[in-house]
Every structure is written in structure tokens, then in C-alpha cells.
Amino acid sequence: MTLCDSCGERPASIHLTQIVDNSVTTAHLCEQCAAEQGVQTTGSVAKLPLSGFLASSVNSGAAAAIQGAEDAGACGFCGASIKDFRATGRLGCAHCYAEFESHLRELLRRIHGATQHVGKLYLDAAPIAPEDAPKIRAELKDRLRRAVESENFELAAELRDRIRSME
To answer: Which pLDDT belongs to residue 64?
Structure first.
């Protein structure tokens, strides 16, 4: 059991991790010390499911990413649908990620600006080895084709620019 870093008396129930300039600091606080320092604990933060967040973020376009996707069908494993995801903010099972990949990928891109997790620290893109360039270019062209087919023109423009920069 970890004790509070501030008072050293009570067990720590709040664990804060902060990353600044690639330096990670962690603070362990009890609820009382956290409240004194202005940290909102889970008891004081409204529980807002992802669906509520999506509904409130219409300006960012995150809700539009899965809007109209009700016709995507249901997961063949658990029977969950994208409509269920919109209502609860939760997928039914691990297979749902593959079943609804195209809708989730667009949602993640709109919310986070990317669709791939690259770790805790920002790293510049690794240089592309000359022998890998044709394979990567072909993959980007395939993604560009799919983006155009799904009328995702923002992503298509990004991919087009990446392909041009490789040539």
C-alpha cells in the first residue's frame, strides 16, 4: 500500500502522472490532500459515458464519425451494433473492434488526430529505408483509394500529400 506523498499518513488513492518535456513525474495522493490541491477525484467528477461526450462534441465532428453508421450491421460474435456503442460508449466484445474498424478508425482520427498509438513520448517519424519505400507507398495508395471511396476527403488529402512527399 502506497502512502500519500503529501501527508504521508493516509493511503494514496489518487495517482497522477504528468509528462512535461519528456520527463515523467508521478504523485500519489489521498483523497483529502488531492481535494486540498484542487484535484478532482472520481467521486466529484460526473460520470460521462463516451456517448455523452460524442453528443456534446458535435463541433469537433467526433459525433459525425459514427453518425449514420447504424446500417453497419451487428458483431457476428456478440451481436452488439454501432448503435449500441453510440448509446453506451462501450463495445460488446473484442471482436467488435474488427467488425466496426472503419467507423472506429474515423472516430479516433477525429478525436485524437491519429489512428495509431505511438507511445507515451512523441517521437519523430523514423526514416524510411529505401527498400521499404515501394511497399509503404503502395499501402498509402490503397488507404487513399479507400478514403476516396468512403468520401473521407480530409484523410485522402493527407494521404495524397504523404505520397507526394515520398516521390
So the answer is: 52
